[in-house]
Recover the amino acids of this structure.
């Protein structure tokens, strides 16, 4: 991932040195990753992809769209910058949380097959100077890059996912937020005909999430369109979802149809469903337990045993500055 960024410009792949396009703190952390890889190679340690822990049927995503995707970058490394192996494609697409379809992680893939993701539109509005509706084809015109991120679910399991997408910041810059905009609110499609989970639960739909504007503008915050160099399968939030790697996975809202810049802090789906259990920030923090379980350790899907959870999911150097002066134990 980190050696060179590959961009699709004018139909051809262009390689660009990360120092030309990346904020310095992110670039430096990528260099640390390279050192780690070199050290592993020197000890003769082979980084291997591991198989899924759950024995789930391999469901291949329906090759939907009537839309031509540009070539998407495929993983350029077998591990993340900490040396952890990528979770296999089969595990990533067969163990999902997507309550609009079902609360059963092993059944989302099957129930989401055939989900229509083309045509698809994302309406961007609120406190901005240039309100605009982006078709999926418009979103795919942003340079698509590879980002290998850890995904840490609040339920204490995790994966290492090679996403494809582009920083949300690029889209926000195009629509020109006004000075009163403090937060970004996101909404998932609400379609009971296609989403069987909507009719069978007491949740308040649609699924909504929010970020503070500076969190949304951070370079790590991604609008993902693919994984493993392929278009996102429905179960992973096709055709476009948010990925905020230093926050619990529920912030990474799937199948987005609306983005709104607002003044007030949005109430997210989980804040609404269980306010005593889920806060707005939801930054990964091993020291702040969920009321019903500890967050100190996690189970890596495809791995064995448990591993220690890292503050901000290991992205502390990149994002801790966003929370200076805030009591992380209180603002969970
Ligand atoms: N987005 C929507 N719309 N509905 C959901 O149920 N689940 C969240 C998040 N985004 C969810 C969602 C949770 S709890 C997690 S952990 C991640 O999606 C899981 O993403 P994955 O299935 O791609 O691993």
């Amino acid at each position: 991932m980190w050696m060179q960024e590959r961009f699709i410009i004018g139909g051809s792949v262009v390689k660009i040195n990360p120092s030309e396009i990346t904020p310095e703190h992110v670039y430096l952390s990528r260099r640390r990753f390279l050192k780690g890889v070199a050290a592993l190679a020197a000890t003769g340690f082979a980084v291997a992809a591991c198989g899924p822990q759950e024995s789930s049927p391999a469901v291949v995503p329906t090759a939907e769209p009537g839309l031509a995707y540009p070539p998407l970058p495929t993983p350029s490394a077998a591990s993340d910058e900490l040396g952890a192996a990528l979770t296999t494609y089969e595990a990533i697409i067969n163990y999902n949380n997507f309550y609009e379809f079902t609360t059963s992680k092993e059944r989302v893939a099957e129930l989401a097959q055939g989900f229509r993701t083309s045509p698809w539109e994302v309406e961007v509005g609120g406190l901005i100077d240039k309100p605009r509706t982006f078709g999926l084809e418009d979103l795919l015109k942003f340079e698509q890059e590879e980002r290998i991120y850890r995904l840490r679910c609040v339920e204490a399991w995790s994966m290492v996912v090679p996403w494809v997408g582009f920083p949300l910041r690029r889209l926000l810059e195009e629509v020109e937020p006004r000075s009163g905009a403090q937060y970004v609110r996101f909404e998932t499609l609400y379609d009971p005909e296609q989403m069987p989970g909507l009719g069978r639960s007491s949740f308040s739909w649609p699924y909504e999430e929010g970020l503070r504007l500076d969190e949304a503008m951070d370079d790590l915050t991604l609008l993902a369109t693919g994984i493993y160099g392929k278009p996102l399968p429905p179960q992973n939030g096709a055709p476009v979802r948010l990925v905020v790697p230093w926050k619990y996975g529920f912030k990474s809202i799937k199948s987005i149809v609306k983005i709104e810049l607002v003044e007030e802090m949005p109430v997210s789906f989980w804040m609404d469903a269980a306010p005593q259990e889920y806060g707005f920030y939801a930054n990964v923090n091993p020291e702040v337990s969920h009321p019903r379980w500890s967050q100190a350790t996690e189970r890596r899907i495809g791995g064995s045993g448990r591993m220690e959870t890292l503050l901000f999911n290991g992205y502390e150097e990149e994002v801790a500055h966003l929370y200076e002066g805030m009591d992380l134990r209180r603002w969970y």
Observations:
- The first strand starts at residue 5 and ends at 9.
